[in-house]
Amino acid sequence: MILATWHINFWPSDAKVYYFDATVQLPQYKFLSEMHHGMDGEKVYWLHGKEIYIVWASLMQRLINDFSTLRPFMLLGSFAIAASSILIFFISRKLWGKLTGLMCYGIFVTSFWPYMYVMMAKHPPLGLLHAMLAICLLIYPLKNKGHFISLFLSGLVMGLAIFSSNGAPLYLPFYLAAYIYTCYQRDPESFKSASTLVKAAAAGLLVLLGMVTVFIYVNFPDVWGNFSNYLNYVKVSGKYNHFFYNQPYVQQWFQDADLSNIRGGWLWVIKYFMVIMPVLFPLYVISVVFLIHESLKQPLKIKAGILLLCFLSVSPMMMAEYAHVAQYGANYFPCIVGILFLVGVAFNRVLGETQSITIDPKKKRWGTGLASALILLQVGVNAHAFLTDIYPCRMVTTFLSDKMAELNEKKFYSYKLHPQNHLFVLNLTPSLYDNVRFVPIDYIVQPEESYVLVPPVTGDSIYVAATSTYMDFDRDVFLNELFRRGTLSKYAAASFKTIASSRYWLHEEEIMSYRRLILNHQIPVEEDKTRVWLLDAEKIQTNKGIIVPHKKYLHMRMNDVRNIGTKEKVYLYDGYTAKVMRPIRLKAVIVRIHKIGNPHDQLKAYIYKLDKKQEVLVPFNENYISNSVEGEKILSDGKEGVGVFQFKEPLDVPPGRYFFIIYRDGPLDDENYYRIHKDYLGLI
């Protein structure tokens, strides 16, 4: 993994945006909590719950003397996953035996999900490592008096876990279960006696002391103030999501719904786990059914124990849903532990293996064969997903850089205005910039030599999802024509899959994931539009006379006309920003609009204002949606018409900037839709 990602480049990941500066500057701080001073806002507390991750990443930067690339983050993540897999083996072996331990190790280490966070240079692997080490220190204590040291160290490491990854508190149910198991193992006969309970409480105080030590270290000197900010972070993450931050463009799929409360709930959880653990999660479901069936035949004590284990395995999911965390992959990563260990419990029940009972040789052969078959299935499915999607999509700028170096050109062309242009032009292999410069263009027919770099044109992309209009890049009418004809590949020197092409990476952003799993939007929509392209400028020049834009596109571009309600995502209406110079009492907005075909649904206008605390568009007030305008009453194409969108109650609008957008409430249709003149908006 380390070798495969050694030359990986930045992409718009958390490591680049939030963590990188903090790791570089960390030695300058007198106290660890000082890292928050430049990042905290009224609603955003980016680094809280990740302080120890910053410490480890900063240390790794200094160990390899690399302060400019992702390598320190990748090394840290790779080490964390490798160490975690070994700890998972030791935990499962201690609890259920060697064969079960090997199976749990094999399934975890061959799952592609953990490696996604290594490649994202994100914090979940480090949270997992600390949590597994904390559990190991509980169930593998030092002998005699060293047991008390183990308890303190275990609490200390669990505290490190909580401040390594904001998802790490989801490991606490497993940690508590391990603590109870440890207490029981030390004195199973008198576990219910008062003296044993006192000893357990004393041991718990040692664990708590370890956690408190980390808590004070991370938040000192303003312990309560920094902890309050951490609690605010937890509160904000449950209250505000990407739906809230991108309301005007998300509104089209939800009509009048309150976007701050949009979640996929348990349906999203189940569908997501089926995607991200295509072998392990079905095994988990089978294991739950098997164990519940087995419990029906067991005494009450064993029945209760099995049901409790099933409940324990699902507890991180329940905690995440109770907290209303944003539903994207990283927030649910700790759930893999409960899922994996319950599969181990079921496998162990089938074998009948314990630390004191040797498995029957015949059953051992059968169990070894079953474990091998499961791991082979796991390897095949996960390797295919990783090698054909996850890895090439993430490594795209490295592959693109290698191709550009191979072409040996000193000059490449790229768009002046493209929402995803900087993600590629500014994130190539650093050495490439010593010999290459980029020349800005508006149209692919402008350059006469070399190559044109065309980023993904789709708006359905995790690259820009939190701020996306979800509309395709359509400023270049010549590029639009090549996509319309399906002939773009004829002019390509190379093309590569990107993150936007992936069926897995999109689930690291909650709006994209919700759309795919709950709304069943077909993402990726068109593979060509999700790829990055290097187009041969000379070939384009040779065929310049025949790459004539479709007259429909030319008309719309020249007259600044946009579509409303089409499946085709070019020339869609992206709203109107109006500057109000003096207070007005707004009764309605007027637009120039006509219809194509014969749509029978309605249109509504929405008005948004800037939030007082941050640069986010939020509904103007509770009456921000206009009354409906019937599609049947709108004039047909060729007839000049207007649409008057009246608000239910007049709006008292103070001076400032406001955003207006119009959506249809019926299904998208390329035959029956609306066209609007983007440059006109009247306020009455």
Distance between the termini: 62 Å
Major sheet, described briefly?
5 strands, mixed
**Fraction in helix:** 40-55%
Spatial sequence of strands, sheet with the most strands: 2-1-3-5-4
- Regions with little confidence, pLDDT below 50 for 5+ residues: none
Bin the strand percentage.
Answer: 5-15%
Rg over CA atoms: 29 Å
Number of continuous helical runs: 24
Shape: globular
Count of distinct strands: 15
Structural class label: alpha+beta
* Mean pLDDT metric: 90
How would you describe this protein?
The chain has 684 residues and is of the alpha+beta class. α1 packs across α2, α3 runs antiparallel to α4 and α6 runs parallel beside α8. It has 24 helices and 15 strands. The model has no long low-confidence stretch (mean pLDDT 90). The protein is globular, with a radius of gyration of 29 Å. Strands 2-1-3-5-4 form a five-stranded mixed sheet.
List the helices and strands and how they pair.
Elements: H1 14-25, H2 51-64, H3 71-96, H4 98-109, H5 112-119, H6 124-139, H7 146-162, H8 172-186, H9 194-219, H10 223-239, H11 242-245, H12 247-250, H13 265-276, H14 280-295, H15 300-323, H16 335-351, H17 361-394, H18 396-407, E1 411-415, H19 421-425, E2 437-441, E3 451-454, H20 477-485, E4 492-496, H21 510-517, H22 527-530, E5 532-536, H23 537-542, H24 551-559, E6 561-564, E7 576-580, E8 584-596, E9 602-610, E10 617-619, E11 629-630, E12 642-653, E13 656-664, E14 673-677, E15 682-683
Parallel strand pairs: 1-2, 1-3
Antiparallel strand pairs: 3-5, 4-5, 6-14, 7-13, 8-12, 8-14, 8-15, 9-10, 9-11, 9-13
